[in-house]
Design goal:
Elements: E1 5-9, H1 13-21, E2 26-29, H2 44-56, E3 60-64, H3 74-87, E4 91-94, H4 97-106, E5 112-114, H5 123-131, E6 134-138, H6 145-154, E7 160-168, H7 179-184, E8 204-206, E9 214-216, E10 231-233, H8 238-244, E11 248-251, H9 258-277, H10 285-292, E12 299-300, E13 324-332, E14 338-342, E15 346-347, E16 351-355, E17 363-366, E18 370-372, E19 378-379, E20 381-382, E21 390-393, E22 404-408
Parallel strand pairs: 1-2, 1-11, 2-3, 3-4, 4-5, 5-6, 6-7, 7-11, 10-12
Antiparallel strand pairs: 7-10, 8-9, 13-14, 13-22, 14-21, 15-20, 16-17, 16-22, 18-19, 18-21
């Protein structure tokens, strides 16, 4: 059994370090102007720091230059491609044919990964990209497991395959949507999606015998979120994915919190490792229980098991998790008083969970005492009033820097 790569999102250098700590083999990231997350906190320096750090600990980084680029963007693309070639990034993700030609010229030593934006849905597609220099194809989310297996079986061993296994689904075909640009002048294909599919819509029809008279379409208790999709979750399908021979399992979420990242990476890391270690006793439920603590929408397997599946729309809109939230992050551990960077209000008596890398068995405890970070005086509660605000508390187990703490609401 060949263990696949676990590939995590990194919306910043700090998030990359969190992803690696919780078990990611590789991360993907990109600068705001050239990748499909224009609000990601990554510039050229952050990108370089992430690559150097990853290589120092034996991990990988794939840089995204996956926008559909205007001509005026190509000077910046050439400059970044040369930088990535010098840094020996492990791969560059792209979908625009013009960008790919520039990468061949300016970053000849770097593997090219074909973005999911290219809509690779067949072995013929995959072979085209392989013949044009691709090392890996990131397959479209719309494929079933049988279609994925056929592509893998029908293409050369030298062509790697990557699929999304978790995260947001897009109403557009493999993310290529123009709705946001049309409604909000923010192009999804340039990384600035306004997520128009998540909005509530009112629908009207024109009476056939009375042109110009618009009649509202009534909705039931599910509401009016007619475009919004559930989130993809393929934890249950890990055995099939590994048995098929997929090379890389990708998690979506460069703009999600460090708490979300740690929880999801940790769940998939342990699921993959546990299945490879003991496939006969694989039970996805315990990993799914962890995902339930961070999900904000319903979960779906989309088309993986059934191309006719219709259970993937989130008609009630975005639902924030009612039970758990990001409590804080360990800054410095001490047996006496550890320093925590807080992310939400904490109070004496709150129930917290420490998310431990490499296991889904979290450590639960209650806050007995809190101390003000600056004055060291005892306090009953603390609220995040500024970025990086800290508090002191006693932790029940030895923790490493950047371990994530979850708060039960």
């Amino acid at each position: 059994m060949r263990k696949p790569e676990l590939l995590a999102p990194a919306g910043s250098f700090e998030k990359a370090k969190i992803a690696f700590m919780y078990g990611a083999d590789a991360v993907y990231c990109g600068t705001a102007s050239l990748s499909l997350r224009s609000r990601a906190e990554v510039d050229d320096n952050d990108l370089a720091d992430t690559i150097r750090y990853a290589h120092s600990i034996g991990k990988k980084v794939y840089a995204a230059i996956n926008i559909y680029a205007w001509d005026e963007t190509y000077d910046e693309i050439r400059k970044q491609a040369r930088m990535l070639n010098e840094l020996k990034v492990d791969g560059i993700i792209a979908s625009d044919c013009g960008v790919i030609e520039v990468l061949k010229q300016e970053a000849p030593d770097i593997d090219i990964h074909i973005s999911t934006q290219a809509n690779t849905v067949s072995a013929h597609d995959a072979m085209f990209w392989y013949k044009n220099g691709a090392k890996r194809v990131i397959l479209a989310r719309e494929l079933s497991k049988d279609q994925i297996k056929h592509i893998i079986d029908s293409t050369p061993i030298g062509l790697e395959t990557e699929i999304f296994v978790h995260g947001a689904l897009c109403f557009g075909y493999s993310g290529r949507c123009f709705l946001s640009d049309f409604l909000a002048s923010r192009s999804a294909n340039l990384g600035d999606c306004a997520q128009s599919c998540r909005w509530a819509y009112n629908l009207y029809v024109e009476e056939r015998n009375n042109p110009g008279n618009l009649m509202p379409v009534d909705f039931d208790e599910k509401g009016t979120y007619i475009f919004s999709s559930k989130d993809l979750c393929l934890l249950k399908e890990i055995p099939d994915i590994i048995d098929i021979g997929v090379d890389s399992l990708k998690l979506e979420g460069r703009l999600k919190t460090e708490y979300y990242l740690a929880s999801v990476v940790n769940a998939y890391r342990t699921a993959i490792d546990d299945y490879c270690k003991d496939p006969e006793n694989y039970d996805y439920i315990k990993y799914l229980n962890e995902i339930e603590k961070v999900k904000t929408r319903g979960l779906t397997t989309f088309y993986f098991n059934d191309r006719n599946n219709k259970d993937f729309q989130e008609y009630e809109g975005k639902q924030y998790n009612p039970d758990y939230e990001f409590g804080g992050k360990v800054v410095e551990y001490s047996q006496d008083k550890s320093i925590i960077e807080i992310k939400n209000k904490l109070m004496v008596g709150d129930t917290l969970e420490i998310i431990i890398p490499g296991t889904i068995d979290v450590h639960k405890f209650e806050i007995d005492e809190l101390w003000d970070y600056e004055t060291d005086e005892k306090i009953e509660s603390v609220s995040p009033g500024r970025a990086g605000q800290k508090v002191k508390m006693k932790l029940p187990i030895k923790c490493e820097k950047n371990w994530i703490i979850r708060r039960k609401k």
